[in-house]
Amino acid sequence: MDTQRRRGWMSLAAATTLVLAAGVMTAPAAHPADDPVEVVVDGDDVRADNVNGLTYKGLGVLSCNSTSNLLMDYKAEHPERYWQLIRVLFGGKHPLINHVKVEMGSDTNTSTGSDPATMRTPDERADASRSPGFQLAADAKTVNPGLKVSILRWVMPAWVQAEWDKGTGADEMYTWYKETILDAYEKYGYMVDYVDPDTNETRDPDEAFVKWYKNAILTDTDFSNPRYDLPAAQRKKAENAYRSIKIIASDENDTHHIGPSVLRDEELFGVVDAVGYHYNTEDLREGDTAGDTYLPYTKLATGENKYGEDKEVWYSEGTASFGYTEYRVNNTEGPNGASTGIGGVQSALDLANRSVKSYANSKRTHYVFQPAIGSFYEGAQYSHKELVSARDPWSGHLHYDAAVYVMQHFTQFATTGWENDTNTAGIWRTVPEASHSGASGTVDIDGSNGAPSYMTLADPRKKDFSTIVVNDSDRTRTYRIKTENMRLGDPAMEIWETRAADPGQAYDANFKRLVDEIRPGRDGYYTYTVAPRSIVTLTTLDKSHDRTTRQRLPESGDRTVLDTDATGRKHDTRDDVLYADDFGYEEEGRVQVGTANGAAKASRPYLASRGNQPRYMVDQTGAWEVGQGADGGNVLYQYMDQSMKNTGAWNRHTPNTTVGDFRWENYKATVDVSFPDRAGGLATLGVRQQKGMAVSDAAYNVRVRPNGTWTFYEYGTAIESGTVAASDTYRLAIEAKGATITTSINGRAVSTYEDPTPETSGRVKLGTDFYRTAFDNLKVEKVDGYTPYARAQIDNMDGSVAYEGAWNRKASFGDAMDWYRTTSTSTDAGASFTVPFTGTGVDVIGGNDGSAVFDVHVDGELIAKDARTAVSDKRRTTYALRGLPDGAHTARFVLRSGKAVVDAFDVISGDVDGELDLTPLRERLDEIGDPVRADHTAGSWAVFDSAVSAAKAAVAGRRGLDAIGVEQITDRLEEAHAGLVREDGGPQ
């Protein structure tokens, strides 16, 4: 190792005369817009002695605020799918992800939801198993022993917050961290590698506390406390590992304070091992080029600073891909309404450009996705932002986005990770002089200008290199790469490419494919022209026969609706139960958990394996956990009480949690509630929740207090209230069938509400005030005569949906409340969309102003003329088509006037139980009688004849027909009859 470049941080006096050259190092030459891009990979620029700042660490995943909640259910119910996910993301010789970052939970909402606090009071023993992030890290280590684990805080538990606010909370903060770290060590066998003692996304780094915390780690000798559960034989090993914890600071978002501070403060430089900041690709450029505020992060990474030591620089929180790439490719946001393919702002290629630009401009060699895995219910803040979607643990459905392939262009063609103490791990170095980005933007990266964007990684022995090129523009770009001072063997270079499918190809036909092999020309340059909207890796590695590199991502599998038996465990569509949970979980088996620092797996009881967290529940706020009830059986408690509520939550809500399937439509939800906290309480049951993170985001919810007073709400608006006899336990029930919402308490109906513009589908919510509250015997049941759920959902950008006329099909900068952040919008009279489906109807979903008027055709027949749409919020139905025979259909909607915003289509199931009342339809048929066809115009008669045929088929008995279908058939019959036009112009 070069001691001149790697002198210790304490040798400040000997280094003070070091003068920095302007710009720190030689940058790549500026590239004219249209000329070939020339890249020189010079072996003299491959800094094998730089073991921290220029080693390429690859990618990380952030687990926080409920984003990983449902993973524990995948592991318990579909272990084969779960462990496959672990292998895909973390396994192999070239893992995609090398780091799990855990944001410490506090039972409060810090964006999409809440993660459990590992210590809710100072007296409670820490329990890291409550947090899915600690368990995810343990499992990932079984396939990636070198995986790093880091933690930081955002919101503190109230007992820490109270002391911190007094200015005396350092010891409490340290206790919370230490006991959590040691509990994870005891349960899973790994020691956390990095801690950020400061708060997440601070704008004012607490440098004094960072120093205090590091000193506390180094001087701590207490490892025998019984609270830590460390066997005597393990204590010394634990102590040594604990003292090796490194410090990262300061996870800033829109400020750059920590870089200059580390450079100017010798003590802080010695304490901090890595610096990180969020959502910005740029270094700081202030003052004199030799000063601490000019390119401070570059100076830290390169070691070209007055201490002569290099530090790690992380993009310590960044976005993943927005929405599903297979839907995004059908956008019209390119030039002249063309698709941007796998590119465009907030796309998979945007992610690639973020990685390139954050390295080129601020030397960050590690990118942490928030999140890489989306395992929380859609509709919460920041929905549809992940590499992998894992939201249906009952079905085992997993969706791997094309962004995984795109990011593998960086990780599968290099040896990534952290160098060892002897600098012999062979981790590839980034090469600053052979890396550049001219893409626009600092947060969302737009490569449509066609400017060069490339990053070079090289073997520290100089035997191989890979250059990753991103072209997120609509034109080709030629690259010429030359090597100097390298020790290449076979000079052949493979070209691996990912881009969207050509017409007629399968969606993933061009994902991470070996497309060419080239050699240097007579002038020594490798020359290759990069296709529009693509990423390529040009590598001297021989990957042509490597099975892992060629491996396709797993298929998603069916996204089956949650419909179980009475245990809540087994899929069963034949009974009248949609879901049930008595919180006992006797039906659940033992669960495999990674232990021994990844060296083994241990079989643990269901609840113990998951820190007593309930099945399928995603917490938005509160401490929701299974515990022993008054009768000795299990109940679900919300533990966050008055003593725990005063925290600095970002999204302040009363405690609530969500469970179920967004496709549920007509059902009855029931739950028992009781109030063990004598100080007060409130219990809420809600139904048809589609989006939002408050209990009032359930479309219909009833709230009861211990004294029996109750109120029924539509969202957050009180509709009706009253009082029932006070009781130790209340059984709350809400039945939602069509527009009729009936609330019952203790078996007696207390409210019936007819909603003129109903929310038609969604999940179940439970909620409380800040008092300990108990829930038991949750049951969701089907309603006789009504379809219980939509069979499937089709996105507006799905390839099966056809559009004619002028449509704006948007994906970039999409709203998280739009399904997959996409919409299709038109104001063009005559424009149409056609959707094929199998079921008894289809709902058109989207945020609409109600101005759109459609002609509706089914299987080639006009069945509704001038059909009006409803004013609808995002994720709500603007037009419902029901009452069709259960089977394959094609529906065509022709816009007559107004503005139509199409987000998704819910396909209605034909699974209906119970008897139907067909009397009103029969009576209407009798009233209409038998009009004479010859007396009416052909156009009006065709609509009428279709409506009569449908009505007669319905009264004769039709499989899959439900009450809402009968209502619609009746309405269409009346409208068609009223729309008959006589040939002679006389009255009907």
From TrEMBL:
Keyword DNA-binding recorded: no
Family: Belongs to the glycosyl hydrolase 59 family.
Protein name: galactosylceramidase
Skewed-composition ranges (Polar residues): 106-115
Signal sequence interval, chain numbering: 1-29
EC number(s) on file: 3.2.1.46
Superkingdom of origin organism: Bacteria
Region Disordered, residue ranges: 103-131, 546-568
InterPro entries hit by this protein: Aldolase_TIM, GH, GH59_C, GH59_cat, Glyco_hydro_59, TAT_signal
Location of the Glycosyl hydrolase family 59 catalytic domain: 56-412
Pfam families in the cross-refs: Glyco_hydro_59 (PF02057), Glyco_hydro_59_C (PF21708)
Record domain Glycosyl hydrolase family 59 C-terminal lectin: where: 619-782
Keywords from the UniProt entry: Lipid degradation, Lipid metabolism, Signal, Sphingolipid metabolism
